Amino acid sequence: MNNQENDAVTDEVEEQLENVFGENEETRDFSEESAVYSDSPLRDLKAIALSIDWEIDDEIMTRLNEEVEALKEKYCDDNIIVLFLRLLGSVGKYIKAKKASSHPDAIKLLNTVFINLEKVVMSEDMPEMEREKLLLGEVKRFKKLKEDIAIRKTVVAKEEETEVSEEAEPIIAGEPQIADAAMQEELKTSEVEVSEISPLAGEITSEIPDIAQMQPHEAFAYALDEIREVIKAEFKALRAEIKLWREER
Amino acid sequence: MAFVNLKKKEVQVKIVYYGPGRGGKTTNLEFLFNRFKGRIKTEMVAIKTHGDRTLFFDFLPFDIGKIKGYDIRIQLYTVPGQVKYNATRRLVLRGVDGMVFVADSMKVRREKNILSLKNLQENLATYNKNIFKIPLVLQYNKRDLSEHGIPLLSPEILKNDLNTQLKAPSFEASALIGTNVVPTMKKIITMTLASLQRELK
Q1: b/e per residue, A156-182, with b = 16+ CB within 10 A?
Q2: B56 near B88, Cβ under 8 Å?
Q3: How far is CA A184 from CA A87, A220, B17, in A?
Q4: Residue B160: CA atoms inside 13 Å, Cβ hemisphere, count?
Q5: Which label site among A123, B30, B104, B162 has the fewest CB atoms less than 10 Å from its CB?
């Protein structure tokens, strides 16, 4: 009896579910597809890139670096691919050093660099201009990330400075970030090579002020301006909110 | 235990998608929401950090109509997969009626799957729930990656690692393209409601 009642409920539930979620019953057997095995030279790199999650461990980042180095050798005659790989390597080094405290956009960047690298490698007929465009897009993102990291560092340093001056105690400056330095250094080299490849590179460089090229006091002033702009915008939004709130009352 | 309102003849069922970080729990819910938003007429709530990580949980409520005269309201939740958010995961499990464990089929994630399932067992135990008794469906996600040549764990290995003792219904799926997302959800709802019916007897 109990079983019969259970069956009746199950039938009713299934019928209701069919009413709401019908027509899209997509049962699919993947076993045959598993036999399809790609010969992509980036297969291992892709597996590594996809497996980097938010619990970043040294093992996976070391594998990423090894794979990047191996591919650099394989594609040493193709400047565009080598530069893509260098970008991947730089971001990878940064993530490895910073782990979970990496800038959130770093992993996103790693993924987009890989996706575009894959496009370039797999589309043999891709025109040179298109390949350069994809690369420069990633360089632009890389520079933006580098800027964001520099700004974040400046803000943290400023906060520390304020805290210490409030406590009236002497300060010892924090150690320079090795990974950030590596990243900046890597980008410097990438920029030189990119500008050799494409005239567009110059345009991109001039669009975004490059903190790495600035004197420390200039970089600090630039970061302060950025912060000032953000605070201004925040206050403006806050004032608008208060105005709305008052009107509602 | 599900929330049952005898006066209003309403039952609220809570189903939680659990699994390792970046395994596809949120993608399951996003697929369901995007595909059926015209029919379920509710909103999906997602709280994410700057880097698209699930910070707290995702929440997708919807009604499936009347069963035995009761209005059935389903609430789908995800938990944050990152190890450090265990307190949040435990909190989301409070009052859970059914579970979907979303395993990542990638070879490199083998250990994370096992650890996450163990973590689920421990967290359920804090609410005196037994992983062997709660309605549970296993989903082996990201099967589509085989088409891209990514080394995957075979369904047999996944079964050996995760399902030898549990013997739960399982689906090979791709939450990204939607394969077997709906059958997974239908199965867990059916199992959970059948289990509730038995408990309420």
Answers
A1: eeeeeeeeeeeeeeeeeeeeeeebbeb
A2: yes
A3: 11, 16, 41
A4: 7
A5: A123
Distance from C-alpha of A43 to C-alpha of B151, rounded to nearest angstrom: 9
Contact A45, A67 (CB under 8 A): yes
| Residue pair A182/A90 in contact by the 8 Å Cβ criterion | yes
> Tokens at residue A29, please?
């057997």
Please determine, for residue A153, whether its predicted confidence score (pLDDT) is greater than 60. yes
Q: What tokens does A49 get?
A: 């890139």
What is the spatial distance between Cα B42 and Cα B35, in angstroms, rounded to a whole number? 12
State which H helix or E strand residue A156 sits in. helix A128-167
pTM: 0.62
Residue type, A10: T
Tokens, residue B106? 């990638």
Q: Does A98 touch chain B (CB under 8 A)?
A: no
B contacts of A54 (beta carbons < 8 Å): 21-22, 51, 53, 81-82
The answer to whether B98 and B184 are in contact (CB under 8 A) is no
Mean pLDDT of B11-36: 92
Cα end-to-end distance, chain A, whole Å: 62
Instruction: Kindly list the residues from chain A whose CB atom is less than 8 angstroms away from the CB atom of residue B182.
Output: 21, 24-26
Closest C-alpha to B41, from B65, B63, B73, B12:
B63
B24, B104 in Cβ contact below 8 A?
A: yes
Distance CA A6, CA B200 (A): 12
Better-predicted residue by pLDDT, A91 or B160: B160
E strand or H helix at A191: helix A178-197
Using a CB-CB cut-off of 8 Å, the residues of chain A touching B108 are: 47-48, 51, 60
C-alpha A85/C-alpha A106 separation (Å) is: 15
Count contacts between A and B (CB, < 8 Å). 135
Structure tokens at A71: 């591919």
Cβ pair B51, B98 in contact under 8 A: no
One-letter amino acid at A17 equals L
Q: How far is CA B98 from CA A52, A81, B179, in A?
A: 29, 48, 21
Q: CB contact, 8 Å: B154 with chain A?
A: yes
**ipTM for the complex shown:** 0.78
Chain centroid to Cα B63, Å, comes to 17
Query: What are the structure tokens assigned to B10, written together?
Result: 């309403």
Q: B198, A53: Cβ pair inside 8 Å?
A: no
For residue A211, the model assigns a pLDDT of 53
User: For A44-91, what is each residue's pLDDT tens digit?
Assistant: 787 777 777 655 677 778 888 888 999 999 998 999 999 999 999 998
